[in-house]
Amino acid sequence: MPTETTMIADIQAVLKNYTDDRDNLIPILQEVQEMSGYISEESMDVIADYLDITPTEIYGVATFYTQFVFTRPGEHVIKVCLGTACHVKKGQQIMGEIINYLGIQPGETTEDYKFTLAAVACLGSCALAPAVVIDGEVYGRQTPQSVKKLLKEIRES
Ligand code: FES
Fold first, then answer.
1. How far apart are CA 80 and CA 139, in angstroms?
2. Which protein residues are within 6 Å of ligand 1, measured from CB?
3. Torsion angle (degrees, nearest 10) of CA 35, 116, 134, 34
């Protein structure tokens, strides 16, 4: 994980590719997020300074776009499906097991930044319900036991 200082230097390098026109805000945010995985408060300050707007204005614009993440995600991102097909197959129990095991709620990251948990509406893998996606890989037909085993393996790896 890069330090905050290197991150700021990287963001300044990104800004060099853009004029200070406010219309460049979204492409700048996209590039920063692609580079860092999220948009930190410090990044927001640097961008705000460059475009001569307030961080609050940036936040206001950026929150319209669900693609932007404002907190540092964990090393492993777990998405638990709570869509209809998964709900019918007790997806909520899978979520409950993960909440218990990691001690975090959906939208949160563990203190060691190992895991981020998210609830999603449908992963597009309904035939595999109940499904979870971990680091982009779909794990279908989960049970509370199998998902806990998966997380244990990841935690110990
Ligand atoms: S409802 Fe869960 S994958 Fe579609």
1. 10
2. 81, 83-86, 122-123, 125-126, 129, 131
3. -10
Kindly give the distance from the C-alpha atom of residue 126 to the centroid of ligand 1, in angstroms, as a whole number: 4
The residue whose CA has the least distance to atom 1 of ligand 1 is 83
Residue 95: closest CA among 75, 71, 121, 114: 121
The pTM for the full model equals 0.74
CA of 141 to the centre of ligand 1 (A): 11
Which domains are present in the chain?
Answer: 4-62 (1.10.10.1590), 76-156 (3.40.30.10)
Residue 53 tokens, joined: 């707007």
Q: What is the pLDDT along the chain (157 residues), one digit of tens a residue?
A: 555 565 788 999 999 999 999 999 999 999 998 888 888 889 999 999 999 999 999 988 888 776 788 888 899 999 999 999 999 999 999 999 999 999 999 989 999 999 999 998 999 999 999 999 999 999 999 999 999 999 999 999 8
